């Protein structure tokens, strides 16, 4: 019996070394190192990992968002740990090097040395989030790098600068935060995905000319974008566009024929005409998500629109305006609705998509008030080819504690005889806190 038990318990150790390396590479480095205490055979197994993940941060979940907090106290111990890991690591090709530090106590010189070491290990993916105003120049000439994320936050420096010389021949994904001069992006001949912050001034437009780009996310900063500047996008292969921040500048888009989806989440706009101009340039999009829509000006027709998502709270006239502008719409998703001012029109004025194409409706944040009931009654009574309506309510609200709402909705007349109504609860994750664990077990291999 004991021999059978020993064989079962030893099956993991009997796996090939490359399998051990893959398993340990899937976990944070501090946990991979702890396996050195299992047995003599496992003492140096972790040194062959292809992913190096160092995290000295604390995260707190609050209101469905993750907030990063500063931590202090064990910086020297963390530094010693990272130094020794890089010293004993025997791999010559690192797939991922992740370094997240939210403490001022870790020396900038140490951070630069660690990143430079990763470059010399032929790293493919770099994910750097540190309190630093610069990184080694070797990062910007790394021939093996395919993915790069840089978030350099330093309150005493304000922002950081791209070097004048960049050559990243294999880079496909670039995510930069806090950079003062994103115009310096160049030397990336195969770049496909880009995320960056944009700020312009009256003297110079922001021009992005990347013919290989397929995915673009732009955060427009409010501190320096102004009425006289433009954001010029020359990205003929772009498929997905994400815009966030403050809309204070005109957008000029050249050849957006490949664009499939766009997401717009501007929390402020100085002038309605900026929205009008932007939406006119997105007329050919198939999927559109919009948040914080501020005006009621006439909308362009979106002839190819198949899916529309309206986040935040929307008034009845805004919803019907969008439905009228999307004759081919099949899927409609909406968060909160304000249907109090809705005035029923003649049946002939029902949006065309509701008569011929609209098959799916998703109501994400239903509270069950009179406005919600009137909205659902209108959609069910006028969407002639509707197949599915899914209503998401707050946890235990309406569905379990107040079934009257569900009963009322199920009684509404349906223009489509094939329509099904589904009720779901929208559960929020419990608050939790994650932080760096500096257990002494990480020193077992020394």
UniProtKB/TrEMBL annotation:
InterPro entries, from UniProt? F-box-like_dom_sf (IPR036047), F-box_AtFBL13-like (IPR053781), F-box_dom (IPR001810), FBD (IPR006566), FBL13/AtMIF1-like (IPR050232), LRR_dom_sf (IPR032675), LRR_FXL15/At3g58940/PEG3-like (IPR055411)
Specify the signal sequence span: none
- Where the record annotates domain FBD, the positions are 352-424
SMART domains named in the record:
FBD (SM00579)
- A Pfam family of this chain: FBD
User: What Gene3D superfamilies does UniProt report for this protein, alphabetically?
Assistant: Ribonuclease Inhibitor
- Specify the protein name: FBD domain-containing protein
Please tell me the species this chain comes from.
Ambrosia artemisiifolia
């Amino acid at each position: 019996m004991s021999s059978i038990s020993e064989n079962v318990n030893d099956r993991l150790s009997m796996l090939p070394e490359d399998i051990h390396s893959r398993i340990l590479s899937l976990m944070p480095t501090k946990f991979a190192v702890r396996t050195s205490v299992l047995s003599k055979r496992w003492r140096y197994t972790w040194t062959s990992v292809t992913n190096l993940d160092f995290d000295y941060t604390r995260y707190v979940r609050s209101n469905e968002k993750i907030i990063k907090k500063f931590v202090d106290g064990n910086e020297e111990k963390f530094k010693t740990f990272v130094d020794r890991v890089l010293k004993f690591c025997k791999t010559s090709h690192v797939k991922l090097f992740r370094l997240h530090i939210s403490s001022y106590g870790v020396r900038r010189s140490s951070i630069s040395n660690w990143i430079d070491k990763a470059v010399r290990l032929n790293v493919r993916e770099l994910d750097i989030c540190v309190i630093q105003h610069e990184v080694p120049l070797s990062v910007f000439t790394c021939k093996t790098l395919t993915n790069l994320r840089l978030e350099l936050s330093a309150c005493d420096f304000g922002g950081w600068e791209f070097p004048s010389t960049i050559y990243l021949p294999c880079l496909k994904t670039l995510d930069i935060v806090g950079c003062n001069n994103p115009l310096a992006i160049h030397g990336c001949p195969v770049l496909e995905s880009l995320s960056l912050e944009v700020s312009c001034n009256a003297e110079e437009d922001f021009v992005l000319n990347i013919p290989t780009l397929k995915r673009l996310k732009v955060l427009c900063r409010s501190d320096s974008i102004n009425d006289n500047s433009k954001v010029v996008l020359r990205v003929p292969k772009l498929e997905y566009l994400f815009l966030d921040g403050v809309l204070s500048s005109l957008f000029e888009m050249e050849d957006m024929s490949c664009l499939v989806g766009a997401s717009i989440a501007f929390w402020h706009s100085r002038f309605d005409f900026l929205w009008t101009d932007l939406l006119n340039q997105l007329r050919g999009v198939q999927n559109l998500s919009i948040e914080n829509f501020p005006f009621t000006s006439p909308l362009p027709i979106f002839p190819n629109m198949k899916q529309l998502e309206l986040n935040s709270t929307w008034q009845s006239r805004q919803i019907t305006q969008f439905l009228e502008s999307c004759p081919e719409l099949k899927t409609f998703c909406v968060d909160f609705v304000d249907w109090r001012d809705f005035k029923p029109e003649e049946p002939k004025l029902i949006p065309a998509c509701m008569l011929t194409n609209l098959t799916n409706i998703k109501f994400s944040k239903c509270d069950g008030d009179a406005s919600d009931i009137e909205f659902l009654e209108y959609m069910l009574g006028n969407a002639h080819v509707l197949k599915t309506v899914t209503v998401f309510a707050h946890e235990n609200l309406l569905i379990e504690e107040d079934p009257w709402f569900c009963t009322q909705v199920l009684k509404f007349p349906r223009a489509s005889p094939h329509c099904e109504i589904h009720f779901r609860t929208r559960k929020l994750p419990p608050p939790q806190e994650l932080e760096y664990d500096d257990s002494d077990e990480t020193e077992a291999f020394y």
